[in-house]
Amino acid sequence: MAMTWEEDLKRIFRPEDVHMGKMKVDPDKCTGCGLCIENCPFRTWEMVDDNIPRLKENWACFSCYNCMVACPVDAISIIEPYHVGSGFWKTYPHPLPAVYPLQPQDAEGNPDEWNEVEKTVYNRRSVRNFSDKPVPEPLIRRVLEAGRAAPSGGNSQPWKFIVITNKALIDEMNEAAWRILTGLHRMYANDETVKTLAGGYEANPNPASYDPRIIQGGIGTGLVNRVSPILLGAPAVILIAADSRAIGGPQMQVGICGTNMNLVANSLGLKATWVGFVATCNMVPSIMEKLGLQAPFAITSSIVLGYPRFKQEGIVPREFRPITWWREGANEPEIEEIPVIPESNQ
User: Fold this and answer.
1) Which is it for the CA torsion 197, 198, 203, 207, positive or negative?
2) What pLDDT does 346 receive?
3) Is 112:105 a contact under the CB 8 Å cutoff?
4) Is residue 232 within 8 Å of 225, Cβ to Cβ?
5) Nearest by Cα to 278 from 254, 303, 256, 259
6) Euclidean distance between CA atoms 339 and 322, whole angstroms
């Protein structure tokens, strides 16, 4: 049965009951340094007359909490996390509570300390503000080796790495991706042309591309307003191209591979983040020719590398969706309660 605009597609492309995240600043702590503004992916914050930042009206915040980790005086806190109350994009339950990592216990359930791997995982953040300092090629090589060593389905190793430090090519890719994504958003924003996108969705359903956090936030307030270049001004870009024939699909394989690279980059004093928008360059033949890419390989994602311009890492809360346990000897599942974390442990 065909999908219709009024009954099916409109719920996806014109979502209602979307509640963007809400943060607040303690004016007694705030020093007006502005790092929360710089570290917001979409520049959702603005500085007001009293030199205290506030969230802009009608700009997207999807509760990444990057503003919190950049604040040197812990002046920022959560009022309400991003959530959608109803419709196709409804978050369940909503809003999901933001919970810091649970305090560790040993095998007997006694209080314990996080080990070094855990500390690395919890403190790692997506860093988007880099210094101009070049990344030495020997360190890039170590990051690449971590990706090459990643596990893959059937040991198929369906990836290919392309390292770009050439500023002219990075700029060319920035512009190409910006043009494509801006065009996409203009179609989305128009009540007539959006139906063309909806028709494409019906032929090849991919709701992730139209999640309000991406289409309204990442593209709508971030890229369209040119908050920063697509590749974030990083001095080094690693494109991860994947073989479309990958066992189980390429996305999972690239995710595992890139996570290895992210963690090793951080261990070397570098910082990194994923940039998936660069995959739009698959639609630009001149760039694909320069990169030497052709089917069955295509850009799936990228990791940008560099030295941080200021502190952007730290532990933040994450959504806590209760876990279902089927324990030995049980006749029914147990759904755990959402933990209450003492403020002193956060």
Assistant:
1) positive
2) 43
3) yes
4) no
5) 303
6) 9
CA dihedral 163, 165, 170, 171 (to 10 degrees): -170
DSSP state letter for 121: H
pLDDT at res. 340: 65
**Which pLDDT does position 266 carry in this prediction?**
95
The architecture in CATH of the region 122-166+226-306 reads 3-Layer(aba) Sandwich (3.40)
Please return the burial class of 35, using the count of CB atoms within 10 Å of its CB with bins 0-12, 13-18 and 19+.
Answer: buried
User: What is the per-residue pLDDT for 200?
Assistant: 87
Would you state the pLDDT for residue 93?
Answer: 77
Is the pTM for the entire model greater than 0.90? yes
**Within the chain, which residue ranges are assigned CATH 3.30.70.20?**
17-99+316-345
Check if the beta carbon of residue 310 is closer than 8 Å to that of residue 66: no
Which residue spans of the chain are classified as CATH 3.40.109.10? 122-166+226-306
Residue ranges in the chain whose pLDDT is less than 70: 1, 340-346
Architecture of domain 17-99+316-345: 2-Layer Sandwich (3.30)
224-241 per-position pLDDT tens digit: 888 889 999 999 999 999
Handedness of CA 46, 48, 52, 54 (dihedral sign): negative
Question: What residues does 84 pair with on adjacent strands?
Answer: 18
**Residue 162: partners with Cβ closer than 8 Å, 6 or more residues away:** 238, 239, 241, 291, 292, 293
Instruction: Could you list the beta-strand ranges (E) of 234-338.
Output: 236-243, 271-274, 297-306, 318-319, 324-325, 334-335
* Tokens standing for residue 279: 């995959």
Count of other CB atoms within 10 angstroms of residue 187: 15
d(CA 10, CA 4): 8
At 45, the amino acid letter reads W
- Six-digit token string for 107: 């095998």
Q: How many CA atoms lie within 13 A of 299 on its CB side?
A: 28
Residue found by looking up tokens 């040993």 in the block: 106
- What is the rounded CA–CA span in Å between residue 164 and residue 144? 13
